[in-house]
Automatic annotation (TrEMBL):
This is CaiB/BaiF CoA-transferase family protein. It comes from the Bacteria. Keywords: Transferase. The keyword Transmembrane helix does not apply. It comes from Ideonella azotifigens. The keyword Transferase applies. Transmembrane segments: none annotated.
Length: 416
């Protein structure tokens, strides 16, 4: 790993897992990132956080689409607005940006040369989109047989939908997530809802990271590279988790239940005297403690509520009873009573409250990285804690083409 030109720019408030150690988990691994928007960049950022040398190839003059997905815009050091959206910041640290025109023969030759030096290529073009440029897996495998080439698409490399473009919102609908999300039929505001973040893209980025790490280990033992075919729809279906298991076991499609849980009761939001709180009661012992704190110990021995299966069967009776009790105290008062009793509970925080939470602060989940144009940029830390090869924060999200000459020198020896 060259590391030339990487300033060791750490957080102004350094998270406990961010250090300037010389050894990182993926030190020496070179990643050529041809992806844009979120799923691919999320994976390459994860690999960069773990120590890989990630080179992000962007369109000259425009760059990754998300650079323009504002407002809000990242302010320049003097406080004036820049032309870089906050969205771009979330998935592009620990990368060097090169501006290369893939539509030109010269640009294609440069990318092929970079791929010949790379361990991993990430791309999220439409199926067959890179073949005309000679940058598809088969073409690059011919110049680098050890290459791990990860393709991220909406629907995969095979199947009747393979040629289609795929977007997170579309996949949340097609993959069943929206059928499970939202208020129940008959309630005010009922109807399918998407999740408030692009969760399918995020999960696909994480699966891509896992696939790349597995392929690197396989290459370590076999010497062989391989192609990873990853589809957003596959990921969405795979992560239906217990809801898919419920359906496949019973043949009955789960219904939207708002914040309620299909298998556990009480496990949802409840009103308080000044707002709302969450109760996440996972077993009968916790339910008994909840009943005692609420002043209704008799509920824990009531045959309708004594066991979780009974509570699931009788939720329409139990939930109104609990709501009548929870509105009698404030959220803070309930927290003070329930937490010492061992009843899982919590507030429903806005983001300002999230980043002011003492636990979030103690874990260093908010950080700032120095930036040559912006002064510093606020970012969310990586949650992985590795004791021997911790995450490092070396490079703030780069300006478009900031490292073109540097990378061509480091990887290809040009300009020396």
């Amino acid at each position: 790993m060259s590391g030339v030109g990487y300033p060791m720019a750490l957080a102004t408030r350094k998270p406990p897992h961010s250090t300037q150690m010389n050894t990182t988990a993926l030190q020496g691994i070179k990643v050529l990132d041809l992806s844009r928007v979120l799923a691919g960049p999320w994976a390459s950022q994860m690999l960069g956080d773990l120590g890989a040398d990630v080179v992000k190839v962007e369109r000259p003059g425009a760059g990754d689409d998300t650079r323009a997905w504002g407002p809000p815009w990242v302010p320049l050091a003097d406080g004036s607005p820049s032309k870089q959206a906050a969205y771009f910041q979330c998935a592009n640290r620990n990368k060097r940006s090169v501006a290369i025109d893939l539509a030109s023969p010269e640009g294609q030759a440069q990318v092929r040369a970079l791929a010949a030096e790379a361990d991993v290529v990430l791309e999220n073009f439409k199926v067959g989109g890179l073949k005309g440029y000679g940058l598809d897996y088969d073409s690059l495998k011919a110049v680098n047989p050890r290459l791990i080439y990860c393709s991220i698409t909406g629907f995969g490399q095979t199947g009747p939908y393979a040629p289609r473009a795929g977007y997170d919102f579309l996949i949340q609908g097609m993959g069943g997530l929206m059928s499970l999300t939202g208020r129940a039929d008959g309630e005010d505001g009922a109807g399918p809802q998407k999740v408030g973040v692009a969760l399918v893209d995020i999960m696909t980025g994480l699966y891509a990271t896992i696939g790349v790490l597995a392929a690197l280990q396989h290459r370590h033992t076999s010497g062989e590279g391989q192609h990873i075919d990853l589809a957003l729809l596959d990921v969405q279906v795979a992560t239906l988790a217990n809801q898919a298991a419920n359906f496949l076991t019973s043949g009955k499609a789960p219904q939207r239940m708002g914040n309620a849980h299909p298998n556990i009761v009480p496990y949802q939001d409840f009103p308080t005297a000044d707002g709302d709180m969450i109760l996440a009661v996972g077993n009968d012992g916790q339910f008994a403690k909840l009943c005692a704190v609420a002043g209704h110990a008799e509920w824990a021995t009531d045959e309708r509520f004594a066991t979780n299966p009974a509570r699931v069967a009788n939720r329409v009776v139990l939930i109104p009873l609990l709501r009548q009790a929870t509105v009698m105290k404030t959220t803070t008062e309930w927290m003070a009573l329930l937490e010492p009793a061992g009843v899982p509970c919590g507030p429903i925080n806005r983001l300002g409250e999230v980043f002011a939470d003492p636990q979030v602060i103690a874990r260093g989940m908010k950080l700032a990285m120095p930036h040559p144009a912006f002064g510093s940029v606020p970012l969310v830390a990586n949650p992985i804690r590795l004791s021997a090869s911790p995450v490092q924060y070396r490079q703030a999200p780069a300006q478009l083409g900031e490292h073109t000459a540097e990378v061509l020198r480091d990887w290809l020896g040009q300009g020396r």
